[in-house]
């Protein structure tokens, strides 16, 4: 059985692995990935935008990670600094400060820069809200484009609440409400809960799905329920990937109306759409499809991540979400040594060292929680 530190390490390495596997093919559809690559199962994959004018000075492939990993490390470092649980006030006072004012090595730029220079608009929004507008921190996510931007880096809340999914859900929501709203916020809470559950000894895939369904609300719950249910049926008859994707995409269309049209172009300006807008009926795509591929593959680590990133669209975040859950289940020994070495070298980050530092802090936070609960029990 993996130790607590090995599980923490599994989460952190898996964040980088899932991110880097999906990064070179992000925004391509399932069919486009299949036509161009066949199937991506290696970190040494060329970015489809390489040698085009669309790179915008960035590079991907060969293990390079994106903002999913950068923001996860920022959150981990905030926990290491504060050595306590976090809330929305820490979003403005600590998290935004680090991304906006502290130079960091950006693998896609191959140089030090402010992380905010790399971020997508919904993640830059938190700078506007917390720094420029000086908002009430717990209202920071209001008005933001609803997406997976908070969920993609939320796994550390599952670590500091290991074995307590409800606490992970609550704390993730309390922090991420400074960034996201509606079903984007909901996904962050549910993913953190799944990671926390995955730390339990002898946990099963069914246990994790049950936890997600117990805590998820509205469209997020329905999307998880329908996709994981379909995954069980498809697994039972050993369906091929083409059939899997046909079924999954049909279900996703109910909860995420974009379908494969994920690019925002000038031709779409002024045309009404429900894309990225708050709704109690919708769900982000990444979390439910990540859970579905875990079910489809009965929790097999690499197969689940490979299927997830090859499914298309937001491939890096899907890879991250599958990775952090299974990394917490199995620990870092499930990850190939060659993959670990490549990820650390190309991204100039010692993930093992980060994991060791964070595991120590997380263990201290959890022990304080246990002591507090023991004191509470004496009240009765």
UniProtKB/TrEMBL annotation:
Keywords: Magnesium, Metal-binding. Its cofactor is Mg(2+). Mg(2+) binds at residues 66-68, 314, 316-317. Pfam families: ADP_ribosyl_GH. Binds 2 magnesium ions per subunit. Gene3D superfamilies: ADP-ribosylation/Crystallin J1. One of its GO terms (molecular function) is metal ion binding. Coiled coil: none annotated. It comes from the Bacteria. The keyword DNA repair does not apply. PANTHER family: ADP-RIBOSYLGLYCOHYDROLASE, ADP-RIBOSYLGLYCOHYDROLASE-RELATED. This is ADP-ribosylglycohydrolase family protein. It comes from Peribacillus psychrosaccharolyticus (Bacillus psychrosaccharolyticus).
């Amino acid at each position: 059985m993996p130790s607590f530190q090995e599980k923490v390490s599994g989460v952190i390495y898996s964040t980088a692995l899932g991110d880097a596997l999906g990064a070179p093919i992000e925004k391509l559809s399932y069919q486009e990935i299949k036509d161009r690559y066949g199937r991506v199962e290696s970190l040494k994959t060329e970015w489809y935008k390489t040698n085009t004018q669309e790179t915008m000075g960035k590079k991907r492939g060969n293990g390079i990670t994106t903002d999913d990993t950068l923001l996860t490390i920022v959150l981990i470092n905030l926990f290491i600094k504060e050595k306590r649980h976090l809330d929305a006030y820490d979003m403005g006072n600590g998290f935004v400060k680090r991304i906006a004012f502290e130079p960091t090595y950006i693998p896609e730029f191959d140089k030090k820069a402010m992380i905010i220079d790399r971020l997508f608009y919904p993640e830059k929004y938190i700078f506007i809200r917390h720094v420029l507008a000086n908002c009430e921190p717990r209202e920071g996510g209001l008005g933001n484009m609803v997406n997976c931007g908070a969920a993609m880096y939320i796994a550390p809340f599952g670590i500091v609440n290991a074995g307590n999914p409800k606490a992970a859900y609550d704390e993730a929501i309390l922090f991420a409400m400074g960034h996201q709203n509606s079903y984007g916020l909901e996904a962050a809470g549910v993913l953190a809960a799944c990671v926390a559950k995955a730390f339990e000894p002898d946990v099963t895939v069914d246990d994790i799905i049950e936890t997600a369904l117990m805590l998820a609300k509205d469209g997020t719950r329905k999307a998880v329920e329908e996709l994981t249910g379909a995954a069980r049926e498809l697994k039972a008859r050993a369906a091929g990937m083409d059939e899997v994707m046909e079924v999954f995409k049909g279900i996703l269309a109910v909860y995420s109306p974009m379908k494969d049209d994920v690019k925002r172009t000038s031709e779409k300006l002024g045309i009404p759409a429900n894309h990225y807008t708050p709704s109690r009926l919708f769900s982000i795509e990444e979390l439910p499809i990540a859970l579905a591929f875990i079910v489809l593959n009965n929790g097999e680590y690499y197969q689940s991540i490979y299927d997830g990133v090859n499914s298309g669209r937001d491939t890096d975040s899907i890879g991250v979400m599958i990775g952090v859950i299974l990394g917490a289940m199995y620990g870092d020994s499930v990850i190939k040594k060659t993959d670990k070495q490549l990820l650390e070298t190309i991204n100039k980050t010692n993930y093992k060292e980060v994991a060791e530092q964070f595991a120590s802090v997380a263990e201290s936070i959890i022990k304080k929680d246990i002591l507090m609960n023991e004191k509470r029990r004496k009240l009765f």
